[in-house]
């Protein structure tokens, strides 16, 4: 198409998005739910929405997930 | 942006019983001096291992190599350990103790890495270079006729709809390419405040482009 998908995504906001502070507050809980595949997004839709939109928090999530799943070596 | 769990449909976590390993960590950290010292030493070793992995994972992006990487991991592990000891009373057993503890070292690495951005030649925050926007969003130069109006409208909206602070943060993050954490450090604020400012700015810009018929309103509906 016209290649503006990334701009479209950047400008899209989700009212469920809880922001960085709340996402980081519960990151350890969310990561374990993801690692165990036990409905992280369903139980914490606001954190899921935030991680889709926030690069730095998403990066922290990836780091913690790697740590708890043993992919950190 | 949502501000409370009950407004967002987030699941709240009630009282939970600790898994045996987490209970063991708490017992040791609150126990006799020899037990506590041994637990602290063991915890530091774990944090250092996770810290090293995390700085390696991020190293390509912040351009630090060699012994400096290991220094950074050591600093992150030491700072995380102090924070964990200080806050161990806050651990509520919602996850394994080690997952909770690893979060501290991951966030320490994240914060320390972000400060490295400013070690490069200083980047003026106010560079208002709209020529960078197409590249930033992967807009195909060959299809410029298709996005030229959209970018012009976006620029107009940034200039006319955003507050001065929103505009400044938009320019730094989007046009200058300053990482959010580095910008937060420079402005003496935090990641959450920067994100909230940009969240509101993104919503305003989307609304302006939707009003001009250039985009849909882009609101993600609750299911």
UniProtKB/TrEMBL annotation, chain A:
Source species, domain of life: Bacteria
Protein name: Uncharacterized protein
Protein's organism: Nonomuraea fuscirosea
From TrEMBL, chain B:
GO biological process: DNA-templated transcription initiation
Domain of life per record: Bacteria
Entry keyword DNA-binding: yes
Regions annotated as coiled coil: none
Alphabetically ordered keywords of this record: DNA-binding, Sigma factor, Transcription, Transcription regulation
Gene3D superfamilies cross-referenced by the UniProt entry: Winged helix-like DNA-binding domain superfamily/Winged helix DNA-binding domain
SUPFAM superfamilies for the chain: Sigma2 domain of RNA polymerase sigma factors, Sigma3 and sigma4 domains of RNA polymerase sigma factors
InterPro entries the record matches: RNA_pol_sigma-70_dom, RNA_pol_sigma70_r4_t2, RNA_pol_sigma_r2, RNA_pol_sigma_r3/r4-like, WH-like_DNA-bd_sf
RNA polymerase sigma factor 70 region 4 type domain: residues covered: 160-205
Molecular functions (GO terms): DNA binding; sigma factor activity
Family per record: Belongs to the sigma-70 factor family. ECF subfamily.
Protein name: RNA polymerase sigma-70 factor (ECF subfamily)
Organism: Nonomuraea fuscirosea
